[in-house]
């Protein structure tokens, strides 16, 4: 393909670092979609991103659009001409509407008969005429909730745009996008290299930017330079680093020319709780912590500068800033630990949890009651669960958590230990907010699980009770995440909790605060939707989920056992036979449309050998299956149920269900109903697809 390289660079003010990677990916994706829609041929699209630019390089882009053949089908041939061969009014109308001459028509022969067709070759346009519209569409489809306006125009983008460069080969595509005229000039680093660089052709990018402008535009390359440099620096300092990928991405998005430096903070600050120390170093200052070979935190850190300099003041300045922050944190920590957490319980009355659900003290009292109920159910230590619940929100009133809200729970644990609380109580306080996101760890201790579930269920029930469930993308109290967290904890820790009983207990604790009906069922439906997402994302077939959901198991652990059993059973040869049997039984019952008054089989109405054999088999099978159902051995139960195949086939082949004797008819339907009831003790297998 005889194409050229296209370069598109959007020069902006500093882009949000936490979004830069996804912005660049989105721009690239949008551009590829638009190129394909416009039927432009190209070899590859490369993307680049730095704090002040988004760029794309399209390799081997063909200079012309692909020629297209336009086809418009007309009426059938027999409807287009009369018996004398004259054109009909139907055909004339079609010709007029499509502005087509009769001489331009062809005949298309299909299996449905011959018809008129108009074919026209549309010559592809020059790519330089199409590109401005394509690029603008790709940019405008970067749809984010917060866009900016600048100057006096109404144009919006993530950040104000300063330059736009569109080069096709060595030719500038002259145009104006988002109010900015395209130029051959791109800008280098703010403080190093050439400020302005004039491009000769698109192939120079991004090498010329690195050579003359001191900007590494390749995001992946820049990230790897930082990662390798950090590891080398840590080794040089006889230490090691555990690189947080989220932090690495953010730092990559903050610098254009990374320079790896090392510095120190005062050793006395190692006495601050390490979680708080690491939070300040990594999440606030965007530095990398260093550990010795035994995993012990050192008073050293690595920083990534955006400028080359021999000036020691860069390191000194960063050390000064970090030491100042750590000094504040140390002061807050020392101040807070002089007081008992329990003293804050009464002060929680002054902090509003929700205007309709009371204060944090009200929430604490509800959590205590629900934690006690959960602890008894899952055999957790009731005394420790109650104590952890009482102290769970007390650290929210400390100076440290006020300054660093992300430390809630963690600091509660440290203050509890300082106050002489039992380590199990303290550890549970630190785990109460887990899991806080989809891939987060769940609480490791049973008391932590108790507290986390109680806290999340209380919030869910409260918000549903005052008719404020999540709507669309709005979920201010993260109820979806809370529901998902409760389900994960129960399933992963194999806790014997009934969702309906759990929710009902929380509703009871709220007493008369709600006037809404069906709170329990509404929350159950909400949680089952979260459970569906969980299983589908885990790779389970949606039909398996629907089959299990149809029998509505209220124990998440039991739900999971059924999901696993059905998923594994489908790999066995017996599965297809069982699905076919179930569908046949289910269809017979649905088609009969007969309401069965009883599930008892009248043995005196059993006339034929096959129905007698089936009745006896079901009676024995019911007894045999009961231990499997009790122990949750569902795959073993499914294998037993599949052995019904021959007996049921004999029944269907020899026994007529729709007899003239209504009593016999109902008796035989009751027999099928008992078979279906056995299946439904696991799932509605009729919803599964047979092979």
From TrEMBL:
Tetramer of two alpha and two beta subunits. Its EC number is 6.1.1.14. NCBIfam families: glyS. SUPFAM superfamilies: HD-domain/PDEase-like. The gene is glyS. The keyword Cytoplasm applies. Keywords: Aminoacyl-tRNA synthetase, ATP-binding, Cytoplasm, Ligase, Nucleotide-binding, Protein biosynthesis. Its main location: cytoplasm. This is Glycine--tRNA ligase beta subunit. One of its GO terms (cellular component) is cytosol. It is found in: Cytoplasm. GO terms for molecular function: arginine-tRNA ligase activity; ATP binding; glycine-tRNA ligase activity. Residues 583-679 form the DALR anticodon binding domain. One of its GO terms (biological process) is glycyl-tRNA aminoacylation. Belongs to the class-II aminoacyl-tRNA synthetase family. It catalyses: tRNA(Gly) + glycine + ATP = glycyl-tRNA(Gly) + AMP + diphosphate. The lineage of its organism: Bacteria, Pseudomonadati, Pseudomonadota, Gammaproteobacteria, Enterobacterales.
